[in-house]
Design a protein that fits this description.
Number of domains: 3
CATH topology of the largest domain: Tachylectin-2, Chain A
Number of strands: 44
Helix content: under 10%
Largest sheet: 10 strands, antiparallel
Structural class: mainly beta
Shape: globular
CATH architecture of the largest domain: 5 Propeller
């Protein structure tokens, strides 16, 4: 299957600027670009190569892995220096740190770090550039922004001379407005499966998907450092992809790049209404601005007076000394090129807006002003409906949050998916919703914050794989509907490997219990087999290699599928509870989103169990992709069971080397193992 992704990205030309060894420290607020060429890669202790006293420091050194890994702070671990260590474990680095003076918060000065692994970007062979412009703090290499953080605050240099080491050639440019850029295009032979954005440490977070006029739109919050940009506030933007066939994709890059130091996107929805495309989204402004300084405060006052929310323009907010927050929107004539509406319309920071049956709009509001709201126009007035759905926090047995609602209707049944674990289904042609997550009959499979789009009668789900912090690789699924509206979930046929088109490395007609297969941990594989279980049948794949082994088990009697780490790859592991089975152990009062009494739940996408897997009752086909994720140097195992349930497990710090088959009262036949490559 020939899959392509055409990426549209921005190429920068910092090499065209004029650089010198001098800079006016008092003009740092206008921005700076620093050109760096090392005379050789660092080989020893950490050393300073450039410093503007009190404002900016650039240092180089070498981390040695695995010894140094546990000593790194969380942010440095998420620079992935260890992935690019050489054979001896050495990973030379360059790190820049700025000292930001902040108007708000208890800490008046906060240091922001940004690094690069020099085995990947060899600054002794070609120049690299450090950019600071007030809103962006970024490394540029080969014309692309290859790492970025988003400052909040200002730089104020102290007395003292600028220091430049003789171990590097360094130039300074303050004329950053002259930085040239242009859009470039590159087409890659690459599947959308296990997709993350362009860049060595760039990942996909919360998703918006939408279908209109034969085009599927895939909008993803762009992430680096797993939510730890801007001091843990995320500072996400949104990149936008489309396809007509789920095989060939166009990535248009960011819908809107961050231009102000308060901007950080939250999810919403895309919809077509009154002849235009809309992207509703949130702004999480109060992560850096005090709550009494954001636009939601004004809208809340108006709501108390009027009983509804109506749009307030950015100019009005500015006149009141406030910053936009909550619900906002962008609009487009062609579904590709969007412009800001420059209005805050609601206080919800995750506004899921859909066109309703009467031609108006309905919002299922997430964090900020939860509930169901309706309006005749995008600018309001937004009036709250008298409904107790969707429920969250203490009202929810599984303690789902009110984040990122996804709402759809299919053949008379309505469905609500919310955040990491909320899931409800109505009865036929009614609004009598049942909490199916509370009985373990949901469709969560290890994907986080899934969203669903009706694609001309096909219902396509997308989400991101947890287990590496917030954001990682993204996956697509297709929903299947059974009697009574119950939903199943399968791989998309367009994204399912065809073993006849792959390099087969093993074929086994009948697999004996204890039989083993050898794999190379830095290669991806596809495995397919038939399983014929008895009523009390169990099948397991004991997976070992570098890192902690685990067993992937399918239990017909319990109708459960699970993974669990183990020290014994010769036997099945103990039973793992599915999320709903922890309900009796939860405190009555919600204290935090992490109060489930175990880490072994699907929201962590590592070791967990899914229940009510009816596909295990009869003979079924098992399909597994052992995906080697090169950017994080680990395994992601993705399975489809009987074309009706899926299961994805992220295995950080693990690479597969061996698979041992375990069977009890079950037969495994017609096994095919194929190499997919890196």
């Amino acid at each position: 299957m020939h899959c392509t992704i055409t990426e549209h990205f921005i190429r920068h030309y910092p090499e065209k600027l004029n650089y010198s060894g001098n800079s006016d420290k008092d003009e740092l607020g206008n921005g700076i670009i620093i050109k760096i060429r090392l005379k050789e890669l660092p080989k020893g202790d950490r050393k300073t190569i450039f410093e503007i006293p009190g404002a900016l420091k650039i240092e180089t050194g070498v981390y040695h892995f695995p010894e140094d890994f546990n000593a790194l702070d969380l942010f440095r671990k998420r620079e992935y220096y260890n992935v690019y260590a050489d054979e001896s474990g050495d990973s030379p680095y360059i790190e820049a740190e700025i000292m930001l003076h902040q108007e708000y918060g208890e800490e008046k000065v906060r240091n922001m770090l940004l690094g690069l692994p020099l085995n990947l970007y060899n600054a002794a062979e070609s120049e690299i550039y450090l950019l600071y412009d007030g809103a962006r703090f970024a490394w540029i290499a080969n014309g692309e922004i290859v790492n970025i953080n988003f400052p909040f605050g200002s730089l104020k240099a102290e007395n003292g001379d600028i220091y430049i080491s003789d171990s590097a050639e360094i130039g300074i440019c303050r004329n950053i407005k002259s930085l040239e850029s242009e859009e470039k295009t590159e087409t890659k032979n690459e599947s959308i499966a296990f997709y993350s954005a362009r860049g060595y440490n760039t990942w996909g977070g919360d998703i918006v998907n939408f279908y209109h006029d034969g085009v599927y739109h895939f909008l993803v919050l762009l992430d680096r450092h797993h939510h730890w940009n801007r001091f843990g506030g995320g500072a996400h933007t949104t990149y936008h992809m489309t396809t007509r066939d789920f095989i060939h994709w166009e990535n248009y890059g960011e819908i809107y790049p961050i231009q102000n130091s308060w901007e950080s996107f939250g999810t919403g929805t895309m919809f077509f209404w009154n002849g235009k495309y809309y992207y509703s989204h949130g702004f999480h402004t109060d992560r850096v601005i005090p709550r009494d300084k954001v636009g939601s405060r004004l809208l809340e006052k108006n709501y108390e007076r009027d009983g509804f929310f109506s749009a307030v323009t950015y100019d009005e907010l500015k006149e009141n000394g406030l910053y936009p927050s909550g619900s906002n929107y962008m609009v487009s004539d062609d579904g590709i090129h969007f412009v800001q509406g420059k209005k805050q319309i609601h206080c919800s920071e995750n506004p899921s807006i859909y066109k309703d049956e009467n031609g108006g709009l309905v919002m299922y509001a997430g964090y900020g002003a939860a509930g169901v709201w309706k309006a005749h126009d995008i600018d309001g007035p937004w009036k709250k409906e008298d409904t107790d759905m969707p429920v969250f926090d203490n009202s929810s047995p599984v303690r789902n949050s009110s984040e990122c609602p996804s709402i759809f209707e299919w053949n008379g049944y309505k469905y609500i998916i919310m955040g990491f674990r909320g899931y409800w289904q109505s009865g036929f042609n009614d609004n009598d919703f049942k909490d199916l997550a509370a009985v373990g009959d949901d469709i969560y499979d290890g994907l986080c914050v899934p969203m669903v789009a009706n694609c001309g009668g096909r219902y396509i789900l997308a989400g991101w794989v947890g287990g590496s912090g917030w954001a990682f690789v993204t996956l697509h699924r297709e929903l299947v509907q059974h009697e009574g509206g119950r939903l199943g979930i399968r791989w998309m046929p367009e994204l399912t490997p065809n073993p006849d088109e792959l390099d087969k490395i093993a074929e086994v007609k009948k697999v004996a219990s204890g039989e083993e297969l050898k794999l190379d941990g830095k290669t991806s594989y596809y495995l397919e087999c038939r399983v014929k279980p008895q009523k009390n049948g169990r099948v397991g794949l004991a997976v070992s290699g570098s890192g902690k082994p685990f067993v992937f088990e399918l239990n017909t009697e319990r109708q459960k599928v699970q993974t669990l780490e183990t020290d014994n790859i010769n036997s099945f592991t103990e039973e793992v509870k599915a999320l709903y089975e922890y309900i009796p152990e939860m405190p009555e009062k919600r204290t935090s989103c992490a109060q489930i009494p175990s880490e072994n739940i699907h929201t962590n996408s590592h070791d967990f169990a899914i229940a009510n897997v009816r596909e295990l009752k009869d003979e079924y086909t098992l399909k597994i992709i052992f995906h080697y994720e090169k950017k994080s140097d680990n395994l992601v195992m993705d399975a489809e069971i009987g074309a009706g349930r899926t299961f994805v497990s992220n295995r950080p710090d693990f690479k597969v080397g061996n698979i041992k088959f375990l069977t009890k009262n079950a037969e495994i036949t017609d096994l095919k193992l194929c190499k997919m490559g890196e």
